[in-house]
Structure formats: C-alpha cells, structure tokens
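Morning - NAP inputs below, output right after.
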Amino acid sequence: MASEPLFDKIALIGIGLIGSSLARVVRRENLARHIAIATRGETTLKRAEELGLGESYTTDFAEAVRDADLVVVSVPVGASGQVAEAIAPALKTGAIVTDVGSTKRSVIAQMAPHMPEGVHFIPGHPLAGTEKSGPDAGFASLFENRWCIFTPLQGTDPAALEKLSEFWRRCGSNIDTMDAGHHDMVLAIVSHLPHIIAYNIVGTADDLESVAKGEVIKYAASGFRDFTRLAASDPTMWRDVCLHNKDAILEMLARFSEDLAYLQRAIRWGDGDKLFDLFTRTRAVRRSIIEAGQEIDAPDFGRQALEHPPKPS
Ligand code: NAP
C-alpha cells in the first residue's frame, strides 16, 4: 500500500529525460495528488500527454505552478532565469521551488533574484542521467541509489529542506548538501570534464584523414565506443553546462593538460614504470566506484541496465 502523498500538487517545468523520470517515479510512489506538466513546445507537451505523465498539461509555465506545493525546474541551465521570471508571479506562498540543473552557481544567480518572499528556493542536482533526452527517454528507476545534491542558500528553512529531502529519498536517491561553488568544482571533474574529453576524442576521430570513418566504427569496441556514449549526450544541455561552469571547467582542463603532458613525456621516453604506476592507481579508482555501488562489475562497462531501462509505467 503506497504511503500518503507528500504534496497536493507538483509542477514539473520541463519534461525531458529528467522531468519525465520524475513524473514516472512521482506516480509510482504516489508522491503527489496532482502532477502539472509544463514544457516549452507543443510537440513535447503532446508526447507527455500521450504517455500519460501527469494530470494537467500546458505550455504556460505560470499556469502550471499556480497552487503548486513543489515546483521542479528541469530545463537546460541557460534557460533557468527565463523560467524563474515566468513562474515568479504565480508561485504560492510556502511553495518549494527546486531545480535539477548540472551547474549550481549560475542557476542560483539566474533564479534567486526572481523568487518572491515566502517561497522556498532550494537548488538541487540529481546525479543521474543517460545520454538520451526527451519525454520518451525517462524511466522511474533513474534516481535509484543515485546522489541528489542540494546547494541551499543561507537562511533556507530547515523544514522545507527536510521535505524536499524526503521527496528525493522517496524517489530512491541519497541526499548530500554542499556549497554551490564546491558542487561546481566537484562536478567539473566527475562529469563535465569526462564529457568534454569524450566530445573531443570523438571529434578528433571524426576529423582524421589517415583512418577511414568505416574503420573507426568497425573497430569501436576497442575502447572508442565507451566515449561515444558520453559524446552522444544532448548538445543543448552540454553547451549550457560548458558556458555556465566556465571557471571550474577551465581550472580542471588546465590540470588535465598538465597531467596529459606528463603521460605524453613518459610515453616518449619509454618510462614504463611511470605508466604502470598510473595505470595501477587508476584501476583502484574503478574498484572503489564499484564497491560504492555506483557501477556494476560486469563486462560491457555495465551499461546493459542503462541501455535497456524498465519500460515506462
Ligand atoms: P531534455 O531531455 O533535453 O529536456 C529538456 C526540457 O527542457 C524539455 O521539456 C524542453 O522543452 C525544455 N527546454 C529546452 N530548452 C528550453 C528553453 N530555452 N526554455 C524553456 N524550456 C526549455 O533535458 P534533460 O536531460 O531532462 O535535462 C534537464 C536539466 O537536467 C538540465 O539542466 C540538465 O543540466 C539537468 N540534468 C541532466 C542530466 C542528464 O544526464 N540528462 C542529469 C542531471 C541533471 P521542449 O522539448 O518543449 O522544447
């Protein structure tokens, strides 16, 4: 028997991979009596309706948030400010407004100035995703055993933070809280840099004249394939991440370039010990990730589960 809904009305602004996964888990876990869906375009809205993701559907963001107790903004980070401006006049006093954006300092700078007195704005970021986008890509178990990080502003109401934490726990996530600047630095290394490296290596392979494109595709399983999954991620989302976490990404890229030069030198001078030591250290990092339950120790980089997510409910 499902527990009592946490909220009367939840408004989901943006109904792509993240928004539609939330809609599915909110329904499955009975977290709200009413799910209001809002998205920018008619085509996405129609698809969300066909999938039966909510109770009401609109392209008018303000209409969706009216009387909502929880508003979750799941749009590319560069659009956060416009969304905040559009919903602000319709937010009810006491409502919790959160987001799922992959960068936090920029989202806070864009959204916080629009938040009316009496509304609890709590920035968030679920560390869960795939390279797919749109309402068809979502699935209810996306957030299971994944971290959701909050970067609360000074003076955040502890009761509102606890209620939002409970919401994400019921979506299956573990909760962490940190400063927005620290979040952006951590995510630059664990998420943003790997995507940039993947985009770069796949771009380099695509530009090569000495190796035929057909060969790159044919022999991809040798390692290249694992980069192509990241490099297939949504261009709009990742353009915005790069533009909105510029400082932290540039700092990590500088470190990365130095370390790459060290590796290049070791290869040039035939320094096998240096190479062996690094490759041994990095192997241990993967073991720790598996031990922490954030990956499975299966062939094919454990991607089977993501490639065949449960059917939408
Ligand atoms: P998505 O599948 O591409 O969906 C994007 C949603 O935002 C759609 O509803 C789209 O509306 C709407 N949208 C796009 N541009 C907009 C604009 N300029 N103004 C208003 N709405 C706009 O994206 P997603 O993967 O769910 O990502 C959403 C957010 O989650 C991003 O901030 C991202 O950083 C964050 N995030 C993503 C992942 C991931 O792996 N994908 C993981 C964690 C966090 P229409 O389709 O109607 O145009």
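Note: Residues 7-178 form a domain with the Rossmann fold fold (CATH 3.40.50.720).

O.
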